[in-house]
Amino acid sequence: MxxxxxxxxxxxxCDAYEITETRTTGWEFYFxxxxxxxxxxxxxxxxxxxxxxxxxxxxxLGKATGDxxxxxxxxxxxxxxxxxxxxxxxxxxxxxxxxxKPLPEKEKLASVDVRRIAEDFITTMNGISETQDQDLNSYxxxxxSIETRxxxxxxxxxxxxxxxxxxxxxxxxxxxxxxxxxxxxxxxGACDKESIRAEVEKTLAFGKDRLCAVNTPVLESLPVLLxxxxxxxxxxxxxxxxxxxxxxxxxxxxxxxxxxxxxxxxDKPSIEVLRYxxxxxxxxxxxxxxxxxxxxxxxxxxxxxxxxxxxxFSQYVGVEDNSIAYNVRVTGGSKSAEELRSGDYIEIVxxxxxxxxxxxxDIAGEIRLGYLHRGGETLIVTGxxxxxxxxxxxxxxxxxxxxxxxDRALIPAVTCLKGxxxxxxx
Length: 426
Prior knowledge:
By secondary structure, this protein is of the alpha+beta class. Helices cover 20% and strands 41% of the residues. It has helices spanning 2-11, 74-88, 114-126, 193-210, 231-240, 244-248, 311-316, 337-340, 390-393, and strands at 16-32, 35-55, 60-69, 93-94, 107-108, 134-152, 157-175, 178-188, 214-215, 224-226, 271-274, 296-300, 303-304, 327-330, 345-356, 362-374, 377-382, 385-389, 398-399, 403-406, 409-412, 415-417, 421-423. Strands 9, 10, 15, 16, 17, 18, 19, 22 and 23 form a nine-stranded mixed β-sheet that branches. A hairpin with a 2-residue loop joins strand 12 and strand 13 (303-304). Helix 1 (2-11) packs across helix 2 (74-88).
């Protein structure tokens, strides 16, 4: 099918193209209180095709993208490709070129043992420590072997395989006739048994504490500690400020060689792009546009050192040797997690929603569960919200020496933000 698509695009007079063939094979398991409710296998092949059309003698370049299932007939493929070419002719982006740099290797096929990874997940979930009042309501396990082949009209080709998994679960907690549920979803490569066990058992403990929580009081500004996966939003914002797309659209004013803030009084972050991170779902050497992923620092000791992002915007800002960032590592801070957990602070572990706006940096989150430490006492709280802005928070931000991994991001286990507004429940 891939060769047919390529041949047809050339017949249609397409100026450039990218084709990605993705085969996904895997298993899915659905458990209710550790009892297997259903399971199924999957074997799916799809093609993503991007068609490019030169407009006004190369002044502009149009692009349109569509998906083709492996079972599509030639007639269906022909129609889709003609439609894409027409759509591309209506788009006027400033001209740029596709990747044409030869890759160090064209093939990296890893052996993905779907059976073993699935068994690891099931064994781990069966080994979770539960009680009569805190237990697993249900969980779903998805384990895939992804095999991808990429080709473009400049002769760039790459073929790779890697594991990709997802775990969804719901925990129940009960007390004095009251019951609540907490829902989690996490992406992984393979199964890191110890970290998953720790995360699930921590969630069970949060469920118990949620039943004991009282309304968050009206507070003056206190340091806010983040020690769950919501902290990835903070570091995703920092990575985004190094993206060429944000640079081109003037969302980011960071400049290479300069501090990321005019006043870094806290820890100075270092953020590194990695090709490989154990148990990540993003372990491949070439990005989705055919560029070899270059390991590099985006930020080092608070100074912007490099950029990441797509080919189109890279050329617009004058960067040729670039790639999309998938795996990132944030170097630990100056204090331990224990040291950060001192004095007066609120550690928020459950939000109904937590966001860091990628455009303006606004922080917003509604508190579902937090631990208020004040005057030597600890109060379990719920309700209220936090708000602020990353441009201000980054100036005083501190984070732990210890690191924790959430799929493609290895970040400090505890992140401390100061200057946020904490709204209590009147």
